[in-house]
Amino acid sequence: MKLFSITTLLLINICSVFSNDVYRVKNVDSTLNVRNKANINGKVVASLKNKQYIFSDKVNNNWVHFYKGYASKDYLTKITTGGYAHSDYLIPVDGNNNQGGGNNQSKESVAKEVYNFFKAKGWTKNAICGMLGNMERESGLKPDTDEIGGGGGYGLLQWTPGSILKNWANSKGYNYRTTKTQCLRIQYDYDNGGQFLTSKECSLTFAKYIKSTKSPEYLAECFMHNYERPGVYALDERKSYARKWFNKL
């Protein structure tokens, strides 16, 4: 039993399953063009940076296809074969052998990871817990979660459609199922002025929200209106969860 456990933990640290092969961009001075067809005459529809990762579903002649289009194989290095990626290219495993997230984490583990990530970014405890209140209401603090009953939402904050998160993560070479990747997406929204919009219920901008020392209950409501904008408010639950995490963390 002990031998099996050790072997299992070693395997978890070595690799993580992906449905597609992973390639990394190599030897480009600026960017690598992504085209809509598998030839040099295809229209340029996107670009990739040096050392960026993509998840490929097929190769057509010398062109690697992923969700945005085709990239020349001459400028790509295959990182995986047969659907496995070494942990060096993924989110690091934490002290509990959880790969930075996923539904094998407890609520407490996810909450602590979210808290530590945003605390290091300068968020107040109040602001983080206001967001955690929304996360628990939306997903039960399970990052790899589809919207119950359909609707297309996904993740800790039930991004709708889920492709908002998934496509962004894939374009960066991140595992979208993890807590860390979803934290990175929220930080990306902050850095790029996305998603968080002031409302008549809450006039705080994103920059003011993350520095706010107002009550976690107020900030849970503010985050709900300005970032989450859910179909069902369930505001009392969000406030209660926010206070719970404020008292625990």
Describe this structure in words.
The protein is of the alpha+beta class. It folds into two domains: 21-79, Roll (SH3 type barrels); 107-248, Orthogonal Bundle (Lysozyme), CATH 1.10.530. It is 39% helix and 16% strand. The chain has helices at residues 2-14, 107-120, 125-139, 163-172, 179-192, 206-209, 216-228, 235-248, and strands at residues 15-17, 21-25, 31-35, 44-49, 53-56, 58-60, 63-66, 69-72, 76-78, 84-86. A three-stranded antiparallel beta sheet has the order 5-2-9. A three-stranded antiparallel beta sheet has the order 6-7-8, with no helix packed on it. Strands 1-10 form a two-stranded antiparallel sheet. Helix 2 runs antiparallel to helix 3. It is elongated, with a radius of gyration of 20 Å.
Short description:
The protein is an alpha+beta fold.
